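ARCHIVE CARD
Drawer: 12
Card no.: 0347
Subject: one protein chain, sequence and derived structure
Cross-reference: see card 0346
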Amino acid sequence: MPGGWVYILTNRPNGTLYIAVTSDLALRIWEHREGLVEGFTKRYGLKMLVYAEHHDDIGAAIQREMTMKHWPRAWKVKLILKDNLNWIDLYDQLA
């Protein structure tokens, strides 16, 4: 199985958080930014990639996503701040 990415999007620092998984991070974030993904991210304008972690196995990425979705918000924010203290949009670093 190919690998996967768990990622977190937001609309602003300390804003609404969205956690998801994908096998093609650059494409998926581009789709969110262009408004091509209907639903929660489009409704709330979630376009800033503030966290991403790669897993060699897509199954492991899916399990991690499901686990993280059940975390308290404070844990998610702490995870973001660990590597992205200023809530910088990481999208430009994907290339």
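Annotation on reverse: The chain has one domain: 4-94. The two ends are 23 Å apart (CA to CA).
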